[in-house]
Amino acid sequence: MKSEMLLLIFATALGLLWVGSLPPTLNAAEDGSGSVTGQVKFQGTAPKATRIDMSADPNCLKAHPTPATTEDVVVGADGSLENVIVYVAEGMPNQTFQPSAQLVVLEQKGCQYQPHVLALEANEKLDVVNADKTTHNIHPMPENNREWNKTQPPGVPIEESFAREEIAIPVKCNIHPWMHGYIAVFKHPFFAVTDKDGRFQIKNLPPGNYTIKAWQEKLGTQIQKTSIQTGQIANVDFTFKQ
Amino acid sequence: MVFICVLSLPTAFAQESHIAGLTGNAKRGKALYQRYCIFCHGPDGDGQGVSALYIDPKPRDFTKGVFKCRSTPSGTLPLDGDLYETISRGIHASGMPSWKPLLRQERVDLVAYIKTFSPRFQEEKPGVPVTIPSEPPSSRESVKRGAEVFQNMNCGLCHGKEGRGNGPSAASLTDSKGNRITPFDLTSGTRLKCGNSDLGIFRDLETGLDGTPMASFSEALKPDQIWDLVHYIAALRSTKGQIAAEMIHDTN
C-alpha cells in the first residue's frame, strides 16, 4: 500500500511539474492589473508641416477645402507628439498571446491614411476601407512579412493580416504618391499609439521589470526602463528632439 | 531538438523543382547559376552582382521571394512553372535575356537552385494559381467598357489618360527597393514584361506585379470587367492607341 501511495504522489508531482513548465496561454485581461502611462513630447522648434499637392486627383482635392499637410512629425501646441508607437520591448512573461478579436480598421479618407500610424497584433484581422470616391491601391512594403499590393475601388472591403512582428511596415498608395502610413505588428498586446495630446496607456501588465520603447517614423526610437508592482500605474514620458 | 533543427535548416541542395514532367536539381542548378546568372543576380542571389550597378531595371533579389511574373495571387510565391517561364522568355526591356539557348532540363535545374535563396520557399507553399475564365470575343462595346474601367480604376494616374505612361503620378513611382520605375506605355506596342497574350494580360491584372507599383485587381474587378480592360489595352497597343481612340469616340 505504502509503495503504491508513494508512486501515486511521485507521478502526480511529476505531472504537476510538467504542466507547470508549459508556457501558459492566457488572455491579456487575465494577467495583471499594472499599466504604463505617459506622454511623448517634442523638444525644440517643431518642423513645419508642408502642404500636400493633391491636384493629380480632383477627387482628393475636393476632400480638402484647405490643403492637407504632411504628417511625418505631428507636434501639438504644447509640444505633444502624435503617432508615436510606445511598446513593451522586454520583460514580458513567456506566454503566447491570442490576437484580440477586435476589428482593426485602416481607412483611406480624403486620400490620406486614418490612422496615419496603426499598431496591431500578428495575425490580427486588418480591415482596409476605402472611404473615398476614388480608387486607391493599398501597398504595404514590409521587410519581415509578405509584400502584397491590391487595388481597392470605393466601398470594396479588403481584409488582411500580418504574420510576423515588424516595427513598422511602411504603407503607400502608388496611385496617390503623397499617401504614407505605417503599420506596426506585435507578437503581444502591450503597445499603444500616442493620441493628439501625445498620451498613451498600456494596460494589463503583470508586475515586473520592463523595457519600454517609443518609435517615431522620422525621429527614431527611444528606450526607457521601468518596473511595475501589482496594480501600479507607472509613468514613463519620452522626449524627442530633431 | 538540435538534431531536428539541423535537419530542417534550408540547405543549398534540399530544393527540387517540378516542371512539365522534369525534375530540377539545385546542385546542378548552382553550377549553371555560377556560370550564367551570378554577374547580375550576385553570388548570394540578392541582385548585387557586379553588373547590377550598370543595369536598369535592377536584377531581381531572390532572397525576398517576391517576383513580378506569376500565376499566383499577390503576396504569394510563384509556381515552379512561373519561374521557368520567366527564365525562358526573359524580361523584355530589361537586362534579363531569354535563356532558351539553355536546355529545358538546365532551366528546370536553375529554378530549383533559385528557390534556395529565399527561406520563404521552405516555409510556404506557392499560391493557388488564379482562375482565368475563357475570353469573350472583343468588340467595340467591350473596348468602351474597358476604357471606363481604366478610368474608374485610376490607371491613368500612372499610365496616363491615353495610356502613354505619362500620368501625373508616373514620375514618383519607385519599386519596393526604392529604385525609380516607369509605368508601361501601353501604346508602345512593345512586348509586356510577363507575356503579351490576352490571357497573359488578364493574369497580370489578377496577380499584380509584386515588388512594383502595379497592383492586383483581384478584389477590385470581376472577370468580365478584366476582359473588357484587356480588350481596351489590346486596342491601345495596336497603332499607338489610334484604334482605341476611334472606338471610344465613335458615336455610332
Describe the protein's architecture and organization:
The complex is a heterodimer of chains A (242) and B (252). Chain A is flat and about 90 Å long. Helix content of chain A is 12%, strand content 39%. Chain A has helices spanning 2-21, 28-31, 58-62, and strands at residues 34-43, 85-90, 104-109, 112-114, 117-121, 126-130, 136-140, 150-152, 158-160, 166-172, 180-186, 191-193, 199-205, 208-216, 220-228, 233-235, 238-241. Mean pLDDT of chain A is 90; it is low at 23-30. In chain A, strand 3 and strand 4 form a beta hairpin. Chain A is built from three helices and 17 strands. Chain A has 242 residues and is mainly beta. The longest helix of chain A is centred in the first third of the chain and has 20 residues, at 2-21. Chain B has a two-stranded antiparallel sheet with strand order 1-2. Chain B has two domains: 11-123, Cytochrome c-like domain (Cytochrome Bc1 Complex, Chain D, domain 2); 140-249, Cytochrome Bc1 Complex, Chain D, domain 2. The N and C termini of chain B lie far apart (75 Å). Residues 1-13 of chain B have low confidence and may be disordered. In chain B, helix 2 (26-36) crosses helix 5 (104-114) and helix 10 (223-237) crosses helix 11 (242-249). Chain A binds chain B through residues 55-57, 134-137, 139, 141, 146-153, 156, 158, 174-177, and chain B through 64, 66, 73-76, 152-154, 157-158, 167-169, 172-173, 176, 208, 210-221.
Key features?
heterodimer, A: 242 residues, mainly beta, Immunoglobulin-like, 5-stranded mixed sheet, 4-stranded mixed sheet, B: 252 residues, mainly alpha, Cytochrome Bc1 Complex, Chain D, domain 2, 2 domains, 11 helices, 2 strands, 39% helix, globular
